[in-house]
Predict the structure.
Amino acid sequence: MFIVMRTWVRGRRCLLARVGAADIPLTDFLAGLMAHPPTRVPGTAVFLNASAHTVPHALLHNLNHNRVLHERLVFLTVRIKTEPWVPFEERMQVEPLGNEAYAVILTFGFKNRPDVPAALEGLSPQFGLTFEPMQTSYFLSRETIVPSQEVESGLSHWREQLFRWLSRNAGSAVEYFNLPANRVIELGSRVEI
């Protein structure tokens, strides 16, 4: 069990380093994008991202393939603390980025159920953001790990294979964050480690 858990931790670290090497600062990207914006469509797009200050890969893929932006953009980062419970009043941070774009950080304790739609609905009284469930789309990035002979991952071959298997069988972010399955769009990329 120790080997499996250690492989997961080291593999995630390698994956995040590989994916993070191409990260773009969010505010700089939005400033350039809004100088010549693509077509804006009605509704709210929530882009889940591990880092609150970088461009989500799902946004880049969506722009590349669909060439549109929603009227309201929410860049959402969910953090799980080592404390068991985080009070509702302390769970939300909202930073307006201009042009109907917002950086939102939701913080949960490890025993809290991370219910993202319910937490976003809780933003309304405090921050003036309203979320219509049928007008909100959730965009997730999904990485498919592929082995490469050229890239040095820091994992031995057998550990890389174990990490690929663990990653393929990991739980779904849709279920974990209680996202409505019919409102989620997963955009994937292949990552060599």
The mean pLDDT is 89. The first strand starts at residue 39 and ends at 48. The helical segments are 2-20, 26-35, 57-66, 116-121, 123-127, 157-168, 173-176.
